[in-house]
Specification:
single chain, 4-stranded antiparallel beta sheet, 12 helices, extended
Length: 460
């Protein structure tokens, strides 16, 4: 049954409900209300249950373009040019009912996680790709039955009530009378004969020892150490493999050297306490410490352009823009979304962009474009309470700034020992391109801009 037959029947003035019921139509073509209104037939032709249908009533008629209970094949999405394949991970099981837009499976790529969603309500009929196996873009992935309901869901929705059987009255059984007297034995019981040979003549040293194999029916909890001395192996996802390879490549490629400094966070803490309420009221965001370090880094990169440069083959590439990658920890691994053109941003712009990218990272909705590029990276281990550390360069960049926790420490100010909130910072740089003078000057510029933000206004 096709759409042309339905339209011809409509023009003849047949009853739609009777027509659909008589011909067992399960598919009609989707047409908009403006298309229905443009057809050259009277509204009386659409005779639904007797009364004539007006033009306004015609606009509420919608047709589906998919067969009911039709099985369709869902393909994997198109990958970016830099991604060739990904890991296909099941989220729903075969035979499970899903709603339109619900996630069926995840595709873990080198840089992000793509979601495969159900186009309509239905049931997963078959997976065409094994769990945790590779899949390429635009490849058949799932056989999906549209509009169907799984047997388990139907059983839960409409439980069948069994008729209650009438209980028959139980017949009373008279207890048998047992004799309470036991017979008196007239002779001694027989003694069992002694065994002539031992039960087993095999020496104990020759008995094979069967090793203990833990049960694999239940999946072990990898986040809990229970002391059962079992080992569980899971496949490393592609994002973690990529992170591992890139970090090792950075160690093998760059001549990494780290320089350190400490920052007195007292003025920035006071600035935050003084203006946080006004800032939050105007921008709907809290004033954090990250925006101060991002802006200070952008200023230092413009002061020392070689730190913003990179080595490609036998050439040095200088950039006239500042794109800063901010490392964000997610359950799947470390991702580094990029803030672009930071040299043109103020504190509020930076906080808004960080909040938007952080929300994407938590929802696993970061696109490849959000993580491509970047001329410098900031890693904030202080959110986990880190005191000190040496970050690793994020290739193909030439330097990375490591922030750490803020702790009260005694420091000497104007010849007196006072307690101040202090933070250690570390700059790891590629010594093939950046000399010690540029690296130390760069880190001192960040220190000055964070300790006294007024220097940014005065450009000193």
């Amino acid at each position: 049954m096709n759409s042309r037959l339905i339209l011809n029947s409509l023009k003849k003035g047949s009853n739609i409900s009777k027509f659909l019921a008589t011909n067992n139509v399960t598919k009609v073509v989707s047409y908009k209300a403006n298309f229905l209104s443009s057809l050259s037939y009277s509204p009386k032709c659409l005779n639904l249950a007797g009364p004539a249908v007006t033009r306004n009533q015609q606009s509420s008629i919608h047709f589906s373009n998919v067969f009911l209970n039709e099985t369709i094949t869902i393909e994997s999405p198109v990958f970016a040019e830099s991604i060739s394949e990904g890991n296909f991970v099941y989220v729903k099981q075969v035979g499970e009912s899903v709603k339109a837009g619900e996630i069926i499976a995840n595709i873990e790529t080198d840089k992000t996680i793509l979601e495969l969603k159900a186009p309509q309500d239905g049931v997963i009929e078959e997976y065409l790709v094994e769990d945790n196996s590779s899949i390429k873009g635009k490849s058949p992935a799932v056989k999906f039955k549209v509009g169907a309901v799984s047997g388990q869901s139907a059983a839960n929705a409409e439980p069948v009530s069994k008729p209650v059987e009438e209980k028959k009255p139980e017949e009373k059984k008279e207890p048998k009378q047992e004799s309470t007297q036991t017979p008196i034995p007239t002779s001694m019981p027989e003694i069992p004969p002694k065994p002539q040979q031992p039960i087993s003549s095999v020496p104990i040293s020759q008995i094979p020892v069967v090793p203990f194999t833990p049960s694999t029916t239940q999946q072990a909890d990898i986040n809990k150490i229970s002391g059962t001395r079992n080992e569980t192996r899971i496949k490393m996802n592609r994002m973690r493999q990529t992170i591992a390879n890139r970090l090792k490549t950075a160690q093998n490629t760059c001549a990494m050297l780290t320089t350190f400094n400490e920052i007195n966070m007292g003025n920035l803490v006071d600035l935050r306490k003084t203006y946080n309420d006004q800032f939050q009221k105007r921008h709907k965001l809290k004033l954090g410490f990250m925006s101060a370090f991002v802006k200070a880094s952008a200023t230092a990169l413009m002061d020392q352009p070689v730190v913003n440069a990179v080595i490609e083959n036998n050439e040095i590439v200088y950039r006239d823009y500042v794109d800063i990658s901010v490392a964000v920890a997610t359950p799947k691994g470390l991702v580094v979304p990029v803030l672009r053109n930071v040299e043109k941003m103020n504190y509020a712009d930076i906080e808004k962009e960080i909040a938007a990218l952080g929300e994407k990272a938590r929802n696993n909705s970061l696109a490849i474009e959000d993580m491509q590029g970047g001329t410098f990276t900031i890693s904030n281990g202080g959110v986990f309470g880190s005191l000190f550390g040496t970050p690793i360069i994020n290739l193909p960049q030439s330097a990375i700034l490591g922030m750490h926790g803020i702790f009260d420490r005694p420091v000497a100010i104007n010849g007196q020992v006072v307690i101040r909130p202090m933070m250690y910072v570390a700059l790891t740089y590629d010594h093939r391109l950046i000399d010690g003078r540029e690296a130390v000057t760069f880190l001192r510029k960040i220190k000055s801009a964070v300790e006294d933000p007024r220097t940014l206004l005065l450009d000193i």
